[in-house]
Specification:
The structure holds 2 protein chains of 2 kinds. Chain A is mostly helical. Chain A is 62% helix and 3% strand. The longest helix of chain A has 38 residues. Chain A starts with 13 loop residues before the first helix and ends with a helix. Chain B has a domain of 222 residues: Dipeptide-binding Protein, Domain 3 (Dipeptide-binding Protein, domain 3, Roll), CATH 3.10.105. Helix content of chain B is 29%, strand content 19%. Chain B has 19 helices and 29 strands. Chain B is globular. Classes of the chains: A mainly alpha, B alpha+beta.
Amino acid sequence: MTKRQREPWFRLDPLTRKRVDRFKSIRRGYWSLLLVVGLIVFALLGEIFINSRALLVVYQGRVTLPTYGRVHLGTEFGLDYKYETNYRDLKKKLAETGEGFVLLAPVPWNAFEQDFKEGTYPPYAPSLSSRHFLGTDAIGRDILARLVYGFRIAILFAILYVGITYFIGAAIGGLMGYWGGIFDLVFQRIIEVWEQVPFLYVVMIIQAIFRPDFGIFLFIFIFFGWSGRTWTVRAMTYRERERDYVLAAKSMGAGTWRIISVHIIPNILVVIVTILPFSISGAISSLTALDYLGFGLRPPTPSWGELISQGLNAYKEAPWILASVVTAMSLILVMITFIGEGLRDAFDPKKYTVYK
Amino acid sequence: MKIKHAIVFLALAALLAAPLLAQSFYTSKAVTADEKALAAEKRPNLTSPQVEDPKLVVPGLPEKVKWYTSKPGVWGSARAKVGGTYHAYLAEFPMTFRTLGPEGNGSSRGLFLSTPSLVEVNNETKEFVPSMATDWAFAADGKTVYYKLNEKAQWSDGKPVTSDDYVFMLKFMRDKNIQDEWYNDYFTTQITDLKAYGKYCISVTWNSVSAPQDLLLNTAVNPRPAHFYPDGVPADFAESYNWKAEPTAGPYALADYVKDESLTFKKVKNWWGHVYDYNKYRFNVDTIEYKVITGGNDIVRNYFDNGELEQFFQIIPAEWAKGNDAEKYKQGYIDRQWAYYVPLTGLSGIVFNTKDPLFADVNVRKGMYYAINMKKMIDTALRGEYALYHNIGIAHVFAGINFDDDSIRKPAFDPAAAGTLFDKAGYSVIGSDGIRQNAQGQKLSFELIYSSPNHTERISVLKEEAKKAGVDLQMKLMQKGLFGAVLEKKYQAVWLGMSTSLTPDYFEYFHSSYAKDPQTNNFFGYANPEMDKLVEAFRAGGTLAEKAAIDKKIQQLVDKEALVVPNYYVPFVRGASWKWLRYPKWLDTQFDGNFFEPLDGGYGSYIGYMWIDGAIKTEVQQAMKDKKYYEPRIYKDETYKAK
C-alpha cells in the first residue's frame, strides 16, 4: 500500500512558482521585501520594544504585564499618585527597596511624554545614558518612538488606502471593461469628472474645517482617490474578455461576477501587483506632505511630516531630528521602490506569456 | 642642570605663549569709549506728576480755570549722536498714505499718523506729559478740558499749528467725504464739541462726565493741517489724497517713496518738539528707510544678517536661541538687547464655556487650575522664559493707580488636589485608560480649540500632563473660524488672548445680558447677579480709585469662579542690533516694550531714543574686513523683572 502523500494546503501554480523564484533571485528586491516586512512587523509590535510601560513588573510577589492592557495607577505599586505609573522611576525605587524588580522595554519612552531635565532645555541630543537613541524633539519627546509609531500609522494608512481603493477600482474597472456599452460610457464620464477634483486641496479644505481623525481621514482619501485605479483594470479586462477561456467559461454558464473574479482578475493581477508598491510609497509621501503642512492627522499624533517640519525649524541646533526622519523616509521609500522594480522584473510578461 | 634649564625654558615659553593662548578680543576706540560712558550712566527720573501752573493766564475763556502741566525731565541718554540712516522693513507696502477712509487701516498707518497728541501718556508711570499742548485745565461741567497749545508747534512744511487746525480736524472727521463712518461716529457721539479761544487755546468736550484723568486720556486729540485741504474735503477724497502724505507735526516726514518697494522718512529740520526735555537725545537718526520684505521671518533674518536691516526681533525663545550660535553674534559685530517690562495684558489663557455641561460645574473648572500644568509647558516649550500669568489683567496702571489685583495667585500643578475637586463633581472613577469618568460613564474629556500652529507644541505638553489628573484634553487647531465659533458659543474650551485698554471695563465679558446672545464678548456664557452689580457699578462712574477697587473685586470673583486658566505673558522685549546701533543703558521704561521702535508708537512711549554711532560703524565695518572679533555683548535690564 502506498502512503498517501499529504496534499500541500497551498499549492502554487507552476507559472507563479517561476515568478516567485525569479523575484527571489533579484536580491535587491527580495531583501528589501524581507526588510520592509520585518520593519512593519517590528512597528506593529512597537509596544514591546519602544514603550514607557514596562514589559514586566514583579512587586511584592505579584507579577504584572503592563504592556497591553489597562492603565496601572501608581498606587498599585506602592507609589502615592493616582495616575499611570512612571515605570522608569519605579525601577529605581524598587532597586533601592528590594520589593521587586522592573523589566523595561529596550527604549523606555513613548511617543507623547515630555522628558524635561531641570536646568537644560529640549531638544536633547542623542544619548545612550538617557536612552534617547535618536535624541528628542523640541518639547522633549523621544525621536525614535515618534519615528517608529509614525511609521506604523503611515504604513497602515497606506496599505489600507491602497488596498481598499484597488479593490473598489478593480471591481468597477472590471465591470466597465467586461460589460462595456452604456455602463462603461456613463462611468467613464463620472470618473473623468471625479478625477478633475483637485485631490490634495480638497483634503486640506476638509481637514481645515472638520479636523477629522484617522478613520474619517482615510475615508476622505478613499472617497477621492478610488477613481484613478479603474483605468488599468478596465483596459486589461477589455483585452482579456476576448480570450478563449472567457468564452469557454461563458459557454459553461458562468455568471459575470464569477468570470471577473475567478477568471479575469487572476490574470491581470500581475499588473496590479507590480504597481502596488509604487502606490504605497505614493500614499506614504502624500500623508507625510499633508502632515508637514499641518493638514494631516490631529496633533500630537506622531508622524514623519510633523518631524520634518520640526526638524527644518531646528536644523542648526538639533540636526538629529531632520537627519533621523530623512534617513528613515529615504530608506523606506527606496526599499519599496526596489520591491516594485523586483516585482516588475519578476512578472515581466515577455518571459512567460505566449500571445496567440 | 639640564632639568633646571628645561623648567626655566618651559616657564618662559608659557609666559610668552599665554597672551596668545588666552582669548583676546578686539577692541576699537569708539566702541570702548561708548561702552565706558554706558557703564557710568544712571537711569534718569522718568516720572511726570501733574503740577499746577499758576503763572499761565489765557484771556477770553468763559470760566475761571486752574491750569495744570507736568515737568518731565531728560529721558534720553547723553551719549546719543545725531545722524545716520536707520534701515527697517515693512511686510507690505501701504495701500494708501491716508490714515482713514478706504484701506486707511493698514499696518503702516502709524508712520503717517505721526502728529503728536495734545498730551501723551508716560509709559513709566502712566502720568501725562505736555506735547502739542503745554497746559490743560478742567471745566466745571466735568466733561470739557481746556488746552493751551504750544506756540512753537509747527507742521513739517514750516507752517505753525494753531487752534484753526483743531477746529478743522473736527469738521474733517465729521465730513461724509472721508468715507470713514467710525470717525464720523466717534467725533460726533464721543467727542461732542471742540471750540477755539484765540489762536493758541481750545476746549474739547467728551460725551459724559468722567474722572479728570479719564477726560484727559479721551480728549487729547490730534490736529489735522487745515492748509493741506484748502477746499475742504473733496468728494473724491479717497482717490485724490491716496498718495498724498499729510504734513506732520512729528519728527519724521515722508521724503520719498518707490511704490511697492520702499518708504523714506527724513528728520524734520529743527523739529520744534526738542523744546521739551523729554525729547532731548531723541529721534537722533536723520533718515529712516522702510524696505518692503515679503516671505516671512526667515527672509527678514537673512536681510538682517547681511547688514541690510539695523535691528531684528528675537522674542520667541527659539529665535533667541538661534542667536547664541550664529556667527556674527559670536564675532561681536551684532549686539543683543533684552529689557524686562510689565506688558499691558488682558484676558489670556484657557477660557471655559460655562454653558457646556462639563464646565457648568464650578468644581470641574476649579479642578482645571490643578490639572493644567502651565509651568511645565513654559519650561519645556518656551525655555522657561515667559512669565506665568495668574490673573486676567496686568499692568493696568493709570495716573498712578493700579487696577489689577496683583496678589491673585493660581495654584501649582497638583493631580491629587485636582482629583479631590473632580471627585466632588462626580468624576470619581478612574477608567482603564487612566481618564476619569462619572457614574454615567461620561469621560472627563473636552476639546480645546486654538488658532495658531505655533501653539501646537505648547498645548501638547498640557495634554500630556493633564492625563496625570485623569483629564483627556483633545486639541483642535482652527486656523480659520475660531473666533466665529467662540462668538457663537459653540465650543467647550478655547485658547485665547484678548487685547485690553488702560482701565479695563469688564462689562462686555461678564454681564448676564450678553450671556445668551451670540456675537457678544461674554464667551463664557456667564450670568451672575453679583458680577452684574460690579460691572454695572464700574460703568456708573466714580473716581479712578473707586473704579480700580471695583476692577479688583471683579478679578477676584473671576478667580473664585475659575472662568479662565491664565497661561503666560511675555515680560520682555529682546532682539539683536548691529553694533553701531546704540541704546540708553536702561533700554526701556516700566510699561513700554517699544524701545526698538524708531518712529511708530506714541510719544509717551519710549520710542526713538536709539542712535547710530558713525564712528563705531566705520570701525566695525573695518573689523569685519580684517576679521577681528569683538567680545559678544548682551545688554540686559532686569529692573522690572517679575519676582
